[in-house]
Design a protein that fits this description.
Structural class: alpha/beta
CATH class of the largest domain: Alpha Beta
Family: Belongs to the NADP-dependent oxidoreductase L4BD family.
Number of strands: 15
Shape: globular
InterPro entries: ADH-like_C, ADH_N_2, ER, GroES-like_sf, MDR_fam, NAD(P)-bd_dom_sf, PTGR1
Subcellular location: Cytoplasm
CATH superfamily of the largest domain: Medium-chain alcohol dehydrogenases, catalytic domain
Bound molecules: NADP nicotinamide-adenine-dinucleotide phosphate
Keywords: Acetylation, Cytoplasm, Fatty acid metabolism, Hydroxylation, Lipid metabolism, NADP, Oxidoreductase, Phosphoprotein, Prostaglandin metabolism
Number of domains: 2
Largest sheet: 7 strands, mixed
Oligomer: single chain
Pfam family, one: ADH_N_2
Strand content: 25-35%
Length: 329
């Protein structure tokens, strides 16, 4: 019998998650039937969506939702020989059995110089979110001024670099001076620390006195209300995430958006990256190519040890990470 270890959601989060909301558990996996494969997680991902989605999709006691890069260690499916690497969505678990259908095989010619963890970040779901959010929702074009918040994170850092590749002026905001330096190093035209600027409105004005054509919004809430006033005529807002609201226990009321939206004829569109599931290959190919050409730089914030997953999750929500937050088992 093969043992597995997993993190269960012990108690639904109330406000900011706590370490005591999680419980480390062990279980025995069933013997493999024909068509089954046994996989071992190599890298796991902690992502902001886990906070709101835990409420929507999980009950207490369930394995925490999430995805991993995993390796086939035993196989009764010739399509997945031992040693095959896949991206799976098996949750916070060290070993698991799959029937193959829910696995996304990693390309066998994955470049040796790239860590496979990038399949959870720059060349994975967050990279695709940046790619489709910019091209399909913001509809960026050369010369646009693009604003990105949470810009030093997994999605934001890729979004800023793609927008630069597309010929845009890019402004980024992040929560520390070290992150701001990181953004400038990535080629952002302007960047500032939203926690220390005093007036967000003034900092936005200084970074782009004529306003913004596109706003790739990862944060939501009050931040977004301030930005709305500085959108140019026909501006496009891609509502990607709202991390500033995920821990709220009561729905907040902000300024109403209608007058500004009408006056400047703005377009605001929420999206989920899964909308472009049928174009995933296109996006991953483009991201891999840009990474290999050195046009997109990647950064990871790696936590060692499966036992540290809850702490890594809390740390990511607080802003510990520059680039993608990853757990190395
Ligand atoms: N629509 C989709 O399909 C889709 C897919 C993936 C991700 N998303 C969303 O995109 C956003 C970024 O995700 P990610 O994976 O790239 O995460 P990330 O940016 O790598 O990590 C989260 C970051 O959020 C920032 N943050 C936390 N609380 C904040 C607050 N109150 N105000 C401003 N910033 C705050 C922190 O950075 P600072 O130090 O800068 O504060 C933290 O590092 C999230 O909102 C996520 O839900 C959406």
């Amino acid at each position: 019998m093969v043992q597995t270890t997993f993190w269960a959601l012990k108690k639904h989060f109330e406000g900011f998650p706590k370490l005591s909301d999680f419980e480390l558990k062990e279980a025995e996996l069933p013997a493999l039937n024909n068509g089954d494969v046994l996989l071992e997680s190599v890298f796991l991902s902690v992502d902001p969506y886990m906070r709101p989605y835990s409420k929507l999709r999980m009950k207490e006691g369930d394995v925490m939702i999430g995805s991993q890069v995993a390796r086939v260690v035993e196989s009764k499916d010739p399509a997945y020989p031992v040693g095959t690497f896949v991206v799976a969505a098996a949750g916070w678990i060290t070993r698991f059995v799959s029937r193959g259908k829910d696995l996304q095989r990693m390309t066998p010619d994955w470049p040796k110089e790239l860590p496979r963890s990038l399949a959870l970040g720059t060349i994975g779901m967050p990279g695709l979110t940046a790619y489709f959010g910019l091209f399909e929702v913001c509809k960026i074009k050369a010369g646009d001024t693009v604003l990105i918040n949470s810009a030093a994170g997994a999605v934001g850092s890729v979004a800023g670099q793609i927008a630069k590749l597309a010929g845009c002026e890019v402004v980024g905001c992040a929560g520390s001076d070290a992150k701001v330096a990181f953004l400038k190093n990535l080629g952002f035209d302007a960047a500032f620390n939203y926690k220390t600027v005093g007036s967000l409105a003034e900092a936005l004005k200084k970074a782009s006195p004529n306003g913004y054509d596109c706003f790739f919004d990862n944060v939501g809430g009050e931040f977004s209300s301030v930005v709305l006033e500085q959108m140019k005529k026909y501006g496009r807002i891609a509502v990607c995430g709202a991390i500033s609201l995920y821990n709220d226990q009561e729905i907040q009321k902000g300024p109403y958006v209608q007058l500004l939206m009408i006056r400047n004829e703005l377009r605001m569109e929420g999206f989920l990256v899964t909308q472009w599931e049928n174009r995933k290959e296109e996006g991953l190919k483009a991201l891999l190519k840009w990474v290999m050409e050195g046009k997109i730089k990647w950064e990871e914030y790696v936590t060692e040890g499966f036992k540290n997953m809850p702490a890594a999750f809390l740390g990511m929500l607080k802003g510990d990470n520059t680039g993608k937050a990853i757990i190395k088992v």
